[in-house]
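so my prof wants the structure for this chain in the tokens format not the other one, which i didnt know existed until like an hour ago. anyway here's the sequence
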Amino acid sequence: MTGLKRPHFPTNTIHVLRLCMFQPTRRPIFKTTTIETSFGKIRVEGRLGQQHLDVFECICYSRLDKREVDGRIKILVDPWEVRKKTKQMSGETLKRIIKELETTIIEIIEPDKFACVGHLIDHVDVAVRKSDGTAVLKDGAFGERKLWSVEIGKAFCKLVSKDIWVGWNPEKIAEIGYSGHGITQAVVRHALSHKNAPTTGWKLDTLIKAVYGEEVSAEMMRWARMTIRQDAEKMAKIGVLVEGDKVRLSDIKGLGTS
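here's what i got, hopefully its the right format
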């Protein structure tokens, strides 16, 4: 990985979002679960929530270079950009999130074309130069900082090669979670994974059920509706509009692209 040019690489792919790999909360629990939706079937063993997805998307978005070796992808990432965009100023919290991204096992069962078992991220470490083993540095306002080498896991490599890419700047979605709620982030991401909304919009309850990927109790549904409506103003800033019991997309999404 040489140079600091930003190559074309996805922030995410639509099946990461539509298969519910990440729990629709900022306080996920560790669990082993099989999730079946209209988009496919997966098995997840680990602890992944919307805070983890903020970091994952910002790692992908903040890449500075990419190389492929034997079908594996490594990207050069600026960690300061990741911390800034996700507001993860606590180094220990960020380390924990990355460790959980590295250790969660994703098995994609269906669709067949994505079938695999692996991680979204295999390893994150300080990037070093092959010539002399010194750290790869980047100048910043507070001096030089070390960059990361991120090895993309088998599961995400498969999706990068075969799935539809998402290229948005994740910072504004991360901001919703920082001051709002994980369920709102999940609904926003699911809605924005579609190029167009239905003519009359989605039913809010339909989107809530879609991001849980499992049965939703009446009590949880009431809480989710109330919470999302509390965050409606934040959602509108990036083009996801809550209007009564419907959700639709505005023409301008308010998100930059990679």
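also thought this was worth mentioning. The first strand starts at residue 12 and ends at 13.
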